[in-house]
Design goal:
Layout (H helix, E strand, L loop, with lengths): L4 E8 L8 E2 L2 E2 L3 H15 L7 E7 L11 E10 L5 E10 L6 E12 L9 H4 L7 E4 H4 L13 E8 L2 E7 L19 H18 L5 E9 L9 E11 L4 E8 L5 E11 L12 H5 L11 E3 L7 H11 L14 E2 L1
Antiparallel strand pairs: 1-5, 2-3, 4-7, 4-11, 5-6, 6-7, 8-9, 8-15, 9-10, 10-12, 11-14, 12-13, 12-16, 13-14
Helix pairs in contact: 1-4
């Protein structure tokens, strides 16, 4: 293996990043960490394959200081066999009671050339299960996902059943100019996959009773990067995890039914150790045919109601609502 290259980073901190919080602390989103490393890799190694990620691990949160315009970090980039690239994000930390500084590794992943993604057929991916419920995206924020406006990018209705979630996800927040949605990344808009992770978080609260955050992604393929200002359809498929974590496969399609990206073997865990619990009304969604309390956060589906299929077709017909008005094996998961 070749020697590592340590690349100093000056991470810009636009005010909207303060909307991404764990409890009372603003933290850098996992999707933004992947985007940062992809940009650094593309600059330092122009010929490197960036469109496929495997073995992403998110070890610890990177806290965002309040009222800061930038933050220092280091991208550690190491060329690997076959033209791949190992990448890690690190910061230096000094305890207030010590003069010594130590290195904190927040995340690491492996870029490589990847391969052809065997994606589910769009018609099959968009087809609802036999039993399920519709949940308005407005009810997700802040009751289930307590983020600020910049990270509230689920749209329309979420369609939930015990196999997963079907949801519309936006490539940029409502009211945010496309030019203000962050630096362009080879991986596309950060907000679309981030919103799909919110849908997975909702599923965990409804069907497993836990508030979970992403800790690992076994494989991420981006055949056609998502873009700010667009809305996509995300299929979140629940998988069984060997280690007890929640585990999902996520597929993101555009309105023409083309796969834009896939995140497979997405591990999520209750990082708050039970300190935050889902609201009590989520239990009603997990029980087929049981209506939620008033005011209703969701409506259960019946044969005479608007079907999940209709929701999908409406997305395809209208091009989605952008809110602006106008494989590889996954050793951590088992099926």
């Amino acid at each position: 293996m070749k020697s590592a290259r340590h690349v100093p980073l000056k991470i810009p901190l636009p005010p909207w990043l303060q909307d991404h919080r764990f409890g009372e602390t603003a933290v850098l989103p996992a999707v933004e960490i992947m985007a940062l490393l992809a940009r650094a890799a593309a600059r330092e190694y122009p010929g490197a394959a960036i469109g496929h990620i495997r073995g992403a691990r998110f070890h610890r949160f990177l806290k965002i200081p309040p009222r800061a315009g930038h933050m220092a970090a280091t991208a550690v980039l190491t060329p690997s066999a076959g033209g791949g690239l190992l990448a890690a994000l690190e910061t230096r930390f000094r305890s207030p009671n010590s003069t010594m500084r130590r290195t904190l590794r927040h995340a690491e992943l492996h870029f490589d050339a990847g391969g052809t993604v065997s994606a589910p057929d769009f018609e099959a991916a968009a087809s609802p299960g036999e039993n399920g419920a519709l949940l308005e995206a407005e009810r997700v924020y802040p009751e289930l996902v307590d983020f600020g406006p910049a990270f509230r990018n689920l749209r329309g209705r979420l369609q939930l059943d015990r196999q997963g979630v079907l949801a519309q996800v936006a490539g940029s927040p409502r009211g945010m100019p496309v030019a203000g949605a962050g630096e362009v990344s080879p991986l596309g808009a950060v907000f679309a996959l981030d919103a799909a992770l919110h849908a997975a978080c909702v599923w965990g609260q409804v069907f497993r009773g836990v508030v979970a955050f992403p800790t690992a992604i076994e494989s991420r393929e981006v055949p056609a990067p998502t873009a700010a200002g667009e809305t996509y359809l995300a299929k979140v498929s629940a998988q069984a995890a060997n280690d007890g974590d929640l585990c999902f496969d996520i597929w993101i399609y555009d309105r023409a039914g083309r796969l834009r990206e896939a995140a497979l073997g997405v591990h999520m865990r209750d990082l708050g150790h039970g300190r935050r619990r889902p609201p009590s009304w989520t239990a009603a969604l997990a029980a087929d045919g049981v209506p939620p309390p008033q005011p209703p956060p969701a409506t259960t589906r019946s044969a005479t109601e608007r079907s999940l299929r209709h929701e999908t077709l409406r997305f395809l017909d209208t091009g989605g609502d952008n809110g602006t008005g106008g494989g590889r094996g996954r050793p951590g998961c088992r099926r």
